[in-house]
Amino acid sequence: MKGASFLLIALLLPWNLHASGEVEQRLPEMLFSETHLQALEAYDSAVFAGGCFWCLEKPFEELVGVAEAVSGYSGGDEKDPRYQDVASGRTGHRESVTVYYNSEVITYRQLLDVFWRNIDPTDGGGQFADRGSQYAPAIFVGTRGEREAAEASKKQLEASGTFSRPILVEILDRRPFYPAEEYHQDYYKKNREAYDRYYTGSGRGPFVDSLWNKAETSGGLATKEGRWGNFDKQERLSSLTDFEYRLTQEGETEPAFANEFWDNKEEGIYVDIVSGEPLFSSTDAFSSGTGWPSFIRPIDPDHIRYLQDTSGTMQRIEVRSRYADSHLGHVFTDGPDPTGLRFCINSAALRFIPRTEMKEAGYEEYLLLFDGYR
C-alpha cells in the first residue's frame, strides 16, 4: 500500500510555494475536476498501469501533444471502485492513467517509450515501494494496432540489453477505466513537496535517473515548458502597450463592454499576449452578459494557475497563465454546464488566433477542437 505518511502529509499541506515566491492556496477541488475541466472527446486515449499513478501523470502531462493524463483504476470487475478498495488488492484493479493525446502531434509508440522510461519493467509484483497486484505494470490495449505496437515496443526493449532481467509488463485488453478521487488528480502539482518526497523515497526517482538522462525526454519529445516557457520575457514585455503591461503584470482590470473580445463570435483560440501559450478556445466561449470574454474552461489546465485574490471587497480566485505568469482575470462558480465555471478574462491579456490562421501561426494541433476537422 502507498505510504500513508506521504498521503497524510500531502493532504494537510494548505499551500504550495512557487519558484516565484508566491503562495498558491489550495482551492476548492471542483476547480480541478479532471472529468469536467477539459473537453477531451476529440483526443485519442491510451491506458497504462505503472504503479503509483501520481508518478505516471507528470511525465505524460508535461509533453506537447498530451492534453491530459487522468489517474484512475482499471483491470478489475468492480464498478466505480474507491481508492481504499483498490489499495487493498481485492478489486482486481490496478492504479492506472488514461492519457489523452493528439496522435498527429505525438504517436502511441512515443507514449510507449515514455511509459518504459518511468517504470521498472522487470518488476511484475508491483512498482518500487508499492507492492501487490494493484501496483503491477501493464499496458491496456484497445485496438489491434495498439497491441502490435505494444508488443513490438516490448520486444525492442528486451533486445536493447538495458535490463538484465526479463520484462514482466503484461499487455492486456482494455477494460473500463474509473477516474480516481479528485485529491489524486494532478497530485504532483497540488502537493509538490510531498510528491517529491514520495517519488524519491519510493525508489522510483533514483531508479529512473540511473537509467535515463533526466534532462531529456524520450526521443527528444518537446515539453510544454520548453515550448511556451523558453522566451525572453523582458523583450516580450517591452512590446506591450502601457495598459497591457499594467493589466498583465500589475493586475489591472479593463472596463466591461469596452474591450476587444467581449463579443467576439469568430472561431479560433486565445493565447497569452506575452508567451503565446494557448489558453482558451471559442468552442468553450459563452455570452455571460458581463462585458468580458467568458469561457467554461481552459484549453489545457496545465497552462493555468489559480491564486486566492483578497484585494477587493470579496474573496476571488485569480487566473494567471502558467509560463508567462500574466494576470488574466478571475474564475467564478456561476457558469453554465458542464463545468459550472465562468472564466472571466481580460481581452488585453489575450491574442486571438482565428481558426483559419491557426496552422500558419503554429497552433495546428488545436484544430481538432473544432467540428469537421477530422
Automatic annotation (TrEMBL):
A GO molecular-function annotation: L-methionine:thioredoxin-disulfide S-oxidoreductase activity
Reactions performed catalytically: [thioredoxin]-disulfide + L-methionine + H2O = L-methionine (S)-S-oxide + [thioredoxin]-dithiol; L-methionyl-[protein] + [thioredoxin]-disulfide + H2O = L-methionyl-(S)-S-oxide-[protein] + [thioredoxin]-dithiol; L-methionyl-[protein] + [thioredoxin]-disulfide + H2O = L-methionyl-(R)-S-oxide-[protein] + [thioredoxin]-dithiol
Enzyme type, top EC level: oxidoreductase
UniProt keyword annotations, A-Z: Multifunctional enzyme, Oxidoreductase, Signal
SUPFAM superfamilies, alphabetized: Mss4-like, Peptide methionine sulfoxide reductase
Active-site residues, as the UniProt record annotates them: C52
Span of the signal peptide: 1-19
Enzyme Commission number(s) from the entry: 1.8.4.11
Pfam families per record: PMSR, SelR
UniProt entry tagged with the keyword Oxidoreductase: yes
UniProt cross-references to InterPro entries, sorted A to Z: Met_Sox_Rdtase_MsrA_dom (IPR002569), Met_Sox_Rdtase_MsrA_sf (IPR036509), Met_Sox_Rdtase_MsrB_dom (IPR002579), Mss4-like_sf (IPR011057)
Domain MsrB: 233-355
Function: Has an important function as a repair enzyme for proteins that have been inactivated by oxidation. Catalyzes the reversible oxidation-reduction of methionine sulfoxide in proteins to methionine.
Family to which this protein belongs: Belongs to the MsrA Met sulfoxide reductase family.
Protein name in UniProt: Peptide methionine sulfoxide reductase MsrA
